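pasting for ref
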Amino acid sequence: MKTKYVILVGDGMGDYPLASLEGRTPLEVSHTPAMTHLARIGEIGTVQTIPEGMEPGSDIANMALLGYDPAVYHTGRAPLEAASLGVHLGPADVAFRCNLVTLKQDDEGTERMEDYSAGHISTAEAHEIIGALQEACEGLPLKLYAGVSYRHVLVWSGGPTDLLTTPPHDILGEPTAGYKRVYDTTDVLRIFTQRCRDMLAQHPVNRRRRDVGLKQANAVWLWGQGKAPSMPSLQDLFGLRGVVISAVDLLKGLGIYAGLEPVHVPGATGYLDTNYAGKVDAALKALQDMDFAFVHVEAPDEASHEGSLTKKVQAIEDFDAKVVGPMVQGLAAYARCHVLVAGDHLTPLSVRTHVPDPSLYALFKGNVATALAEDEKIVFCETAARESRRHMESAVALFHRFVNAHHGS
């Protein structure tokens, strides 16, 4: 029987020590028996998922965790999301991530970024809004495509790639004027974004949300632009056939470019209410015929962006109990498996955005049903990862270690 390969990503679950936790991290106070078990029967360590000089985004970190050097293959975040939506980018097309956001004026009249997700607007509401915003593209070289919740894609035929755009989750609470200047000084984007604001001000979805006290999607925010990348498949590189399972279009699109099959899981939301069991079932079913499954859970990262310790602990514990635990149980049916559990990057609650610090991982190779713990004192957390003194200089090198492939310099 062939070896099975599984990567389980808890997006942004790593953190800094918090004074409110007496110097511990959210991982250290969370109940994580499944990840701790893997660390004990395998190895735990740190990994530099963000190459020096690159932005600490999920696109870059997860590309590296899949074994692709971002310095070689990364062209932008939005082209990956476009692929997930079935959008084919021509040579001149530039894709932008298009967030539905909530902007708010403070008491002094300064507009600030209140929420990068418009209150985690539902996909159904978002699709109603995006349908209406198609009118904002009229007469412009733009096409708008609906995604999941607040995450959508805008494609500009013949657009520039060198605009200095900023992720909205990086500027929560900050004045928007300086960051919006790139749109205001680019005619096509200025016209589009202003049209959207005018239409959103009176949209029925926003009226309904306002009436029940929910945040309104009163603006769009464009960022992460780029052209289509050119990537060899994991099957060509390592002989791996597999699936990518995520609620997030970014991860599904990355998987598509890597030659993986994206699996749609009903009820997968990218938040605390996601369908964890459905993701596990889909992965284990795929492994009956394929070699590899990449399963991504967004919830810890979303909780971190919100600055909610309670939600982050819940997201970590749900990831452990509802994804890692059941996956390990399912893999007991195979004589040999390779399981990698990792955070793609740290998203500390204290800063509410991604940082380029080393992340942590646990790696096991063998038979999970018969493996014995090496060290019963280990707990899956940042401290144990550092104290192991096992550090991978790049996530690409970690992937090669994961698949037992030689990795050059």
